[in-house]
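Notes, p. 3: input format for complexes.
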Amino acid sequence: MRARDGYQHFELDRHPFDIVGWDGYVYPYTFNADDFEPRAGRFHLPPPAHQTFQGQGFVICTFAPRMLDWDAEAVPLPYHHSNIQSEEVMFYAAGDYAARKGVEVGCVTLHPSGLPHGPQPGAVEKALGKTSTDELAVMWDTFRPLRLSTLWRETDKPEYALSWNPDRALAT
Ligand SMILES: [Fe+2]
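Output follows (172 residues plus fe (ii) ion):
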């Protein structure tokens, strides 16, 4: 292996891909989110605290059931932000993801690079005083733009994009 300006020699007792589940793809790992020990903090920990994988051009974060921020002044939800250098995709696997209205278990959201987002109106007030969350969500951020296939039209929920502005919400 290349290490700084030289090489280091490693000998493994078996091929690194010779594991249960390897089917020839380039991501031979499985990860059981139930085995993940999430971190918690007195104040909100940003997503890198929940990062479980990193590859060339992407990161994966696992938001698992955990204690919420315990300071008396803490707001136990993510702050509003624009991920200006990445596309943000979230899959909501289980539990109640309090920071997002309009999503349920099984949903996938895409927040394109530069789009401001965060808790919708009312979510912060609802979350104040909560001490734990049962959410299980997986986020992957890519550092190159994603393009939607035409299949998105079949599952799109156009009301989600307007859920930050109740005045513009679509009639359902
Ligand atoms: Fe985000």
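The first strand starts at residue 2 and ends at 3.
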